[in-house]
Design brief:
- This protein is an alpha/beta fold.
- It has one domain: 3-Layer(aba) Sandwich (Rossmann fold), CATH 3.40.50.2020.
- 24% of the residues lie in helices and 30% in strands.
- The strands form 2 sheets. A 6-stranded mixed sheet has the order 4-3-2-5-6-7, with helices on both faces. A 3-stranded antiparallel sheet has the order 1-9-8.
- Helix 1 crosses helix 2.
- The chain is globular, with a radius of gyration of 16 Å.
- The protein starts with 7 loop residues before the first strand and ends with a helix.
- Bound molecules: 1-O-pyrophosphono-5-O-phosphono-alpha-D-ribofuranose, manganese (II) ion and magnesium ion (MG).
- Manganese (II) ion (MN) binds next to loops.
């Protein structure tokens, strides 16, 4: 369990690529939300790293809130059943809301969240996702800010876990099949 390198196959997105992409996305968000108040909503736990780095790439004031949902548990497949573990503190009514996610896989989590947030009366609602797996989509998500489209491998690191591990890796890497099969 100790040798992380033996549990990964390839690095898919490096730390440097992630940081450069977040700066690029931050510039787009700054332009798109000029003169508007913006609240970033991070989806715990996977979005912790992207929220921390994206928020610091922004050269403007924002507020931050967090929602904890989970659909995967200790599995490599989405159950499609989304559980709220922690709700937002903020009232979204009249706010410009940008949901910050680590990955869009099947799309089920965000599809559920978008519907849930729409009913809270936000002034605008958009999504930023560092990663997206087009081949895994079960529902189409309208995501304005996408970092990287990636193949349909099981990836970990930079917030993404398998059974709660590997979130602390600095890169996004492919988990070796022997770890989960
Ligand atoms: C992961 C990931 C996304 C979601 C994407 O979260 O962080 O939130 O799955 O998958 P989907 O598009 O198929 O719904 P998970 O449920 O594993 O919880 P976690 O963030 O705490 O790891
Ligand atoms: Mn998540
Ligand atoms: Mg997870």
């Amino acid at each position: 369990a100790a040798e992380i390198a033996d549990q990964l196959t390839d690095v898919l997105v490096t730390e440097e690529q992630i940081q450069a992409k977040l700066v690029e996305l931050a510039e787009r968000v700054e332009a798109d939300y000029a003169g508007k108040e913006l609240i970033l909503v991070g989806v715990l736990k996977g979005a912790v790293m992207v929220m921390a780095d994206f928020a610091r790439a922004l050269k403007r004031d924002i507020t931050m809130d967090w929602m904890a949902v989970s659909s995967y548990g200790a599995s490599t497949k989405s159950s499609g059943v989304v559980q709220i573990r922690k709700d937002l503190d903020a009232d979204l009514h009249g706010k410009h809301v940008l949901i910050v996610e680590d990955i869009i896989d099947s799309g089920l989590t965000l599809s559920w969240l978008l519907e849930n947030f729409q009913s809270r009366g936000a002034e605008s609602l958009e999504v930023l996702a560092l990663l997206r797996k087009p081949e895994a989509a079960k529902v189409e998500i309208d995501c304005r800010y996408v970092g990287f489209d990636i193949p349909n491998d099981f990836v970990v690191g930079y917030g993404l876990d398998y059974a709660e591990k590997y979130r602390n890796l600095r890169d996004v890497a492919i988990l070796a099949p022997h770890v989960y099969s």
